[in-house]
Amino acid sequence: MPYLQRILNAKVYDVARETELELARSLSTRLGNTVLLKREDNQPVFSFKLRGAYNKMVNLSAEQRARGVICASAGNHAQGVALSARRLGCRAVIVMPVTTPALKVDAVRTLGGEVLLHGDSYSDAYDQAVKVAADQGLTFVHPFDDPDVIAGQGTIGMEILRQHQGPIDAVFVAIGGGGLISGVAAYLKSVRPGIKVIGVQTTDSDAMARSVEAGKRVRLTDVGLFSDGTAVKQVGKETFRLTRVLVDEFIRVDTDAICAAMKDVFQDTRSILEPAGALGVAAVKQYVERTGCRDQTLIAITCGANMNFDRLRFVAERAEMGEEREALFAVTIPEERGSFKRFCELIGPRSVTEFNYRISDEQKAHLFVGLSTRTHGESAQIGELFRGQGFDAIDLSHDELAIDHIRHQVGGRSELAANERLFRFEFPERPGALMRFLSSMHPGWNISLFHYRNQGADYGRILVGIQVPKADRSRFRQFLDTLAYPCIEETDNPVYRLFLR
After folding, report:
1. Could you tell me if 491 and 394 lie in one domain?
2. What is the pLDDT of residues 308-325, one digit of tens each?
3. Do 247 and 292 fall into the same domain?
4. Residue 371 and residue 442 in one domain
5. What is this structure's pTM?
6. 382: closest CA among 104, 390, 373?
7. Which of 92, 217, 218, 219 could form a disulfide with 85 if both were Cys (CB 3.0 to 4.6 A apart)?
8. What is residue 353's three-state secondary structure?
9. Helix pair 255-269, 312-322: axis angle to 10 deg
């Protein structure tokens, strides 16, 4: 049966709903194009996957459903199968990688699925599911490489054209195994072939793009797991056949770009996507930047929102890097009184996002500094400003070691930190507050340790080590009393003595 006919006859609406095609107002204004979001993250299981799963299972024979079904999934297909099984009254065994977020595992169990955890990726889970299916006589429900599954996902394309009958220039679709893009492309190219269908993959899980480029299916030895919903080592035979013919181009996006896209969607919708769900939005931004297109209608399918809450810490950290809204520097200044303040004055009105320093050398001080930026390439300009004033500066904005690790490890013990006392300060977190705090520091005592990181809270928190000679203790106490910031002395804290003293 031709795919257009399969999609038109797909049975998905017993469990799925027609999701919104929503204007992303802020993103559209920023990019100079109309950006629409196809909100599959609003499905009952927060993913498009139940469309294909149910369409496959409802077309099974009564005898097949009586024996039960099994699938392999990183989480979203699993929930679709579990919900469909509950609706159809059959047993469902779900094999999931051990790397699957707990949120998805718990959701499958809540829906009545029997969960087996196996392997590090979808491909590992798939191999195990095939064995279990043979041993127990279960019917395998493939997450992407099945005509009924592909047709179920294709109903998204059908809805898009029904919801937006005006011009559509391009539709951006995330690719894992290829079921979603195969179904959407099959419908769009049958009805309105002038619409570009653009596949999106992560730079470290791009099996489909590599396969199309090679002219044959390529199996990756390893895949990145940040976008766990698209972490597939090898795409399907049928999805490869369809994708290589129907998809116009591919865009690869990295982790920082995905995090920035998640933030963009949140700002427009107040919804939090999972990484795979934001691939389309990340690609829209990259496409506009590369082509310079204006006044086009671009649609991104936000295909999932099964996001572990704990992962938000990482996303918030990396989103600013993906948008180039934060620049990181290693700056060397003379270890002498006044140079620290002179450097801070050079920063000017820019918001400081991070400031780490530990005394370690009698001649030079090494600072780890984060600054907010507004435009792409601004970090290079800031670096030139520092160097022009005599401060050696290394731009670390794209240095993975600095971003992931070194920023958290600046410091340690120092033999030069004699007479050091340690204090925690709090101050209202608003523009200029950190600089006002630095300006209030008395020039008579040397700062030997400084740590600040903007956490997005109402109050900023700073850890400061100050070298105070014993003869100056009385004057130092008077100095603390005159400060307008609450402080707590931590000099006797055992953590400080273990790791910094």
Report:
1. yes
2. 887 888 888 788 767 777
3. yes
4. yes
5. 0.79
6. 373
7. 92
8. strand
9. 100
